[in-house]
Amino acid sequence: MIDLTGKHVFVAGGSRGIGRAVCVMAAKAGADVTVNYVRNRAAADDVVNQVTSLGRMAFAVQADISQNGAARDAVDKAVQALGQLDGLVVTAGVFEPAPIDEMTPEFWDRTMRVNVKGTYLAVQSAIPSMRKRGGGSIVIFTSTAGQRGSDIYSAYATSKGAQILFMRSMAKELAPDRIRVNCVAPGWTETDMATDTINALGREDIVKSIPLGRIGLPEDTAAATCYLLSDLANFMTGSTMTVDGGFDMRG
Length: 251
Ligand SMILES: NC(=O)c1ccc[n+]([C@@H]2O[C@H](COP(=O)([O-])OP(=O)(O)OC[C@H]3O[C@@H](n4cnc5c(N)ncnc54)[C@H](OP(=O)(O)O)[C@@H]3O)[C@@H](O)[C@H]2O)c1
Fold this sequence. Notes:
Bound molecules: NADP nicotinamide-adenine-dinucleotide phosphate
Mean pLDDT: 97
Order of helices and strands: EHEHEHEHEHHEHHHE
């Protein structure tokens, strides 16, 4: 049912984790995919090979999306390679702990630069191409931490809350252009970003705290993303889809 045939999706942070699963699932649904990465060229190439083996076109592009001009250059190259954009998914982000007594201004700035400024720059870069196509779908990866707050991860939670308000602002501003903007909020998901923390905090306790009784997989949130990218979600904008096995409901 979810059909992305003929669409070009740019995944900011597509080389690993959830972004990688989005690239592969979107390709299975018919999309051509740009895989953006910051450091890990080998991982990006691996995703490109997986996408092309599914019969879709793929293009890898290096860019630190938080640096001025980098996302714009990356989108320009992607459009040259695969055509105008229909979808943008922002999964690129950092997740690091710092108790308030130990937090440095540099730490705070880095979290905000990658998670908030990077999101703004990636979204701004995609808009001209989507306007040329007559519309598009933007999916921003926030977190349940951005809805409820998080001790030790206060900078991260603040950055994720900011993404939600940016998403809602963009949803209003871009609706006349038929560009839909939504968030996906994962709970704990098995990726390079989270697995060490899950193990350190106690995997069994975390599983017990999740009503559906397991840690999320990248494919769980990739499925929600592909829905939001598709025409099935044509009437959805300004929403946050929580994909956390019910974790946020626990008493
Ligand atoms: N995993 C979880 O439990 C969880 C829970 C809630 C929310 N989330 C959110 O979901 C999103 C994806 O998380 P994940 O677990 O998939 O992370 P991950 O496994 O650490 O993967 C991060 C990806 O983002 C790329 N990236 C990082 N900084 C970048 C930058 N400045 N510019 C461009 N690309 C950049 C990385 O590229 P390289 O391969 O080149 O390093 C990699 O492809 C994040 O926004 C995170 O906050 C995750």
